[in-house]
Amino acid sequence: MDLSADNSPAASAGEVAARAAALRAEIARHDHAYYVLDAPTIPDAEYDRLFRELQAIEQVHPALRSADSPTQRVGGKPLAQFAAVRHRIPMLSIRTETDTEASGAFVFDSRVRSALKRNDEDPPIEYAAELKFDGLAISLRYEDGVLVQAATRGDGETGEDVTANVRTVKAIPLRLRGEAPPVLEIRGEVYMRRDDFERLNTRQADAGDKTFVNPRNAAAGSIRQLDPSIAARRPLSFFAYGLGDTGEWTPPATHAEVLDVIAAFGLPVCEHRAVVQGAQGLADFHARMGALRDTLPFDIDGVVYKVNSRALQQQLGFVTREPRWAVAHKYPAQEAVTLLRDIEVQVGRTGALTPVARLEPVFVGGVTVTNATLHNQDEIDRKDVRIGDWVIVRRAGDVIPEVVAPVLERRSGEPPRFVLLERFPTCPVCGSHVVRGEDEAVARCTGGLFCPAQRKQALLHFAGRRAMDIEGLGDKLVDQLVDAAIVKTPVDLYRLGVLALANLERMGEKSAQNLLMAIEKSRSTTLARFIFALGIRNVGEATARDLARHFGNLDALVAADVDALQQVPDVGPIVAQCIADFFGEPHNREVIEQLRAAGVQWAEGEPQGTVAGALAGKTFVLTGTLPTLSRDEAKALIEARGGKVAGSVSKKTHYVIAGAEAGSKLDKAQALGLAILDEDGLRALLNETDTNA
Ligand code: IVH
Question: Taking the CA of residue 75 as centre, how many other CA atoms within 13 Å lie in the half-sphere pointing to its CB?
Fold first, then answer.
């Protein structure tokens, strides 16, 4: 039914209004499914159709354009400044436990216990534990279920009215779901996901606009943007974590239930939360989330503990602006500022010259960092990093530390720009020319395997744990072997004798024997490992596995042309060309023949067509703690059979593997009627697929 046109006399004013209301509700439902539950319910085209129908009705009947209409998310003119908003209930800050070890949890718990006059015999305190999101605090005011105001924290008493910008955040409902109280203020954090941040920065750079240093700055900058139409183009997200003014309404008795109710009202509440008992429960949560930190799609800088009972919260009260019932327990900072002393280059396996920042040593992400990657010339230009700058260095988890941005306020004078090709017209390792192809981000040494750096990297890659797995062949040894011209290609490894080795520095006869044994052991391998070990550009472990499965034996792979290669799942034209180029090089075919002659062998199988494993195309989500398998192990087992492991549950998920303390992912899986397995179930599925894989 399309009631938008003027010339539909059959539609009474009441019918049109009802249709508009129905469309608003339906669109809001789809927004909730998409932005809050991450489980889209209709195709985009269908959504667009509903949206356009509503727009058309409102065009003809402007009176129906209500504040909670999804068409009204973006609107309003640029502001000259933000109006001040006085918070009816102050927005508190939170005490920070700077001790990043487990003891931080014990210190907080003992403070709470002594304030409550509990002694050692009394039962443990119950806490609600959640993540500390790294964004910007916002208070949302709903009146009769409709979002009427959004304000920043400001000094806690008075913030800024950022309603127009906040309305553009799709995860924030313009109208609460269900029976809403007359007044309800919901507090939480506006943040930007890391992938959204990367995409935004790429877009900004492409448009010649300024890029952001980190997701937090991007989120804060977007919310404090005076032009709502710009804010609307910034991909913002939101997590609710508490309440402000609740008017006449009495919230539930515990914080955990408060969050449940907030979620039921349709706001996003992070699934990573738990109710725990006592200090040990807090410490366990801190450790668990610490392990999860780098896999989350957004930044956190710690966790937050709150006394679960609201009655006890009241009893504990505040000191200055900080509640005694809550604390933030941090993780080691992932960013620090230090001096950029120089920029050098590292020559990789494929000859790529990677600029490397030499830094004044700085403690970040739990270790002392002296080098950080600058990726390539474009990145140096984009970030405008210059030698002598003070720079922000980031080290998240186990990834290579990187230079994020210069601190421009601390730059003195106008140091020259760094131009890699000027500073390194020739390879610092072998002296060959350095070139940078058109449309290529990286500069490369043209020396090929003549370049010792490339030879060394190729050997290290060949010997790596996921390739031929030659234990003990590390970079020191490879340096010595290549520098002494004992080893040039991988074949030379299989011709090594004890004598040549034992004469190397720091290498006795015993270690020489051990290495030879490891080399001997590597002679029998799998086809997938062998293909990966060759170090073909753009052929990682997964592609190597797919190639092995698809072709079954090496000769078929060597003989395959670009078209045949593209029959392999996930192999596109670029990868196919890299593979064909590699095997087209007589020198490479020769090395392979020599390796075979030297006794390197692998089991060859029948080609298995395009089915990349028995679980190909199946998506899994892991939640909770499994009795014996770690998350990584379970993931590896699934991926080894071609399955994919995703981070969140949606309609597209095939299996949810649930362990102890599975949280909202499990609830969602049940709600969506998905297949849910425990560890035994997973093992059964894996065994079943093993017999026909
Ligand atoms: S509760 C009762 N919970 O941390 C204290 N705050 O100083 C009210 N934050 O900028 C805050 N995640 O925006 C609370 N799960 C969380 C949080 C959180 C991040 C931020 C908050 C504020 C600061 C507290």
Answer: 11
CB hemisphere CA count around 84 (13 angstroms):
6
Q: What is the pLDDT of residues 435-463, one digit of tens each?
A: 887 778 889 988 777 788 999 999 999 99
CB burial string 494-511: b at 16+ within 10 A, e below: bebeeebbeebeebeeee
Does the Cβ of 133 fall within 6 Å of ligand 1?
yes
Q: In what order do the strands lie in the sheet with 619-623?
A: 644-646, 619-623, 655-658, 675-677
> Which pLDDT belongs to residue 87?
96
595 class by beta-carbon count within 10 Å (0-12 exposed, 13-18 middle, 19+ buried) = buried
Residues (pLDDT < 70) of the chain are: 1-10, 397-398, 608-613, 688-693
| Distance (Å) from CA 79 to ligand 1 centroid | 28
What span, in angstroms and rounded, lies between the C-alpha atoms of 50 and 191? 29
Sheet holding 237-243, edge to edge: 146-152, 136-143, 183-191, 237-243
Q: Quick one: tokens of 455?
A: 């030879």
| Catalytic, out of 132, 306, 665, 668 | 132
Check residue 652 and give its pLDDT. 83
**Residues 571-590: pLDDT tens digits?**
999 999 999 988 988 888 88
| CA separation for the pair 425, 108 (Å, rounded) | 58
Ligand 1, pocket-test mutation among 89, 127, 132, most atoms within 8 A of CB: 132
304 lines ligand 1 (CB under 6 A): yes
Q: Please work out whether the CB of residue 327 comes within 6 Å of at least one atom of ligand 1.
A: no
Alpha-helix residue ranges (DSSP H) falling in 176-334: 194-206, 215-223, 228-231, 255-264, 278-292, 310-316
What domains sit in the chain, N to C, each tagged with a CATH number? Answer: 13-73 (1.10.287.610), 105-330 (3.30.470.30), 335-423 (2.40.50.140), 452-602 (1.10.150.20), 619-692 (3.40.50.10190)
Cα–ligand 1 centroid distance for 96 (angstroms): 10
Whether 132 is a known active-site residue: answer yes
**Three-state secondary structure of 257-286:** HHHHHHHHCCCCCCCCCEEEEHHHHHHHHH
Q: What pTM value is reported for the model? A: 0.66
Phi, psi of 55, deg, nearest 5: -60, -40
The one-letter amino acid code at 172 reads I
